[in-house]
Specification:
Blueprint: H1 2-19, E1 48-50, H2 53-63, E2 67-71, E3 87-89, H3 97-102, E4 107-111, H4 116-124, E5 129-132, H5 137-150, H6 156-165, E6 175-179, E7 181-182, E8 185-188, H7 193-200, E9 204-205, E10 219-221, H8 224-230, E11 234-238, H9 246-254, H10 263-266, E12 270-273, H11 275-278, H12 284-298
Parallel strand pairs: 1-2, 1-4, 2-3, 4-5, 6-9, 6-11, 11-12
Antiparallel strand pairs: 7-8, 8-10
Length: 301
């Protein structure tokens, strides 16, 4: 179990760097041009290669005809809508530049901090690129609007769908602790996708305002003493991208010295969430599923 915890931490480091940075995507596109890894097209983009799962999903739902290439993702293995879109790499494998260039894209979209060298080479070839940060609900809305503008699509249907995810929120503010890994014990503060989502559902995230020395941006490292001090009413455990069974995950946490002393344990308010949707937005369906589960968990169901 300790080994799987280490692997998960490495995965969190990669994904948190992807989703946990601030941005002002709502600014006009031309105003945001002078960034090192960004060169948006002058005209409407008609051939887009997406290098993240969430932008693949957004582009395909805005206008699937504009998506000509995508990164591999376990989220889309059984997605018939994306079955015939060429993969330019698979999960945790290098980007195949030859495949990308062969698709003759007029726009490449990637998360900031990823594929930096490859994006630079593509720019040198005159191919437009666009990078983004995603660490809040507002950033998701802004990213959707920006991508819609780049490919001349209407973002409103997707924005309306996002809004529906936030309906019927709990009227109770339970103190809530999200634990994303066990070695070290990590929890999201308000500067992360998970932390912002908790705020949207009126959860009282006990680590929202904590700042730590964790290398995982948007997350803080917690000691057993700090967890006991906060003593949350609701406890959310995050399963890894390589899922364990519910029993295995619970057994790993039950060995921790603070476990039996928490009021969330005593009141049976422990919930297991999927990594995609809560830590990494992943896809629109994953976000929707997480919102439904949050609504139930935070209302005591």
């Amino acid at each position: 179990m300790r080994y799987s915890g280490i692997i998960f931490c490495l995965q969190v480091l990669l994904i948190v760097n992807l989703v946990a940075c601030g941005t002002n995507i709502n600014q006009q596109i031309q105003k945001s041009l002078p960034t090192p890894a960004q060169l948006v097209p002058k005209d409407t983009a008609n051939r887009v290669v997406s290098l993240s799962a969430i932008t693949t999903d957004i582009i395909s739902q805005l206008d699937q005809s504009k998506l000509v290439g995508m990164t591999g993702s376990s989220l889309f293995k059984n997605n018939s809508r994306l079955q015939n879109i060429p993969r330019v790499n698979e999960v945790r494998t290098p980007l195949n530049l030859e495949k990308v260039i062969a698709l003759k894209p007029d726009l490449i979209i990637a998360p900031t901090g990823f594929y930096v060298q490859e994006m630079g080479k593509l720019q040198q070839l005159g191919i437009a690129t666009y990078t983004y940060h995603l660490n809040s609900w507002e950033a998701l809305q802004q990213l959707t609007q920006t991508l819609a503008q780049l490919i001349a699509a209407d973002p409103q249907p997707l924005l309306n769908r996002y809004q529906s995810f936030l309906a019927n929120k709990s009227n109770y503010q339970y103190s809530t602790l999200v634990l994303t890994s066990i070695k070290p014990v990590l929890s999201p503060n308000k500067n992360s996708w998970a932390g912002d989502l908790l705020t949207k559902f009126k959860a009282k995230n006990v680590t929202a305002d904590l700042q730590g020395k964790s290398q995982f941006r948007g997350y803080v490292t917690l000691s057993p003493e700090k967890i006991l001090q906060e003593n949350p009413e609701v406890l959310i455990l995050v399963n890894t991208p390589q899922p364990q069974s519910r029993t295995e995950l619970l057994e790993s946490w039950q060995k921790e010295p603070f476990w039996q002393q928490l009021q969330a344990i005593k009141n049976n308010r422990v919930y297991i969430f999927d990594y995609h949707g809560l830590v990494n937005p992943g896809s629109i369906d994953a976000i929707e599923a997480t919102c439904k589960q949050l609504r139930l968990a935070l209302s005591g169901q």
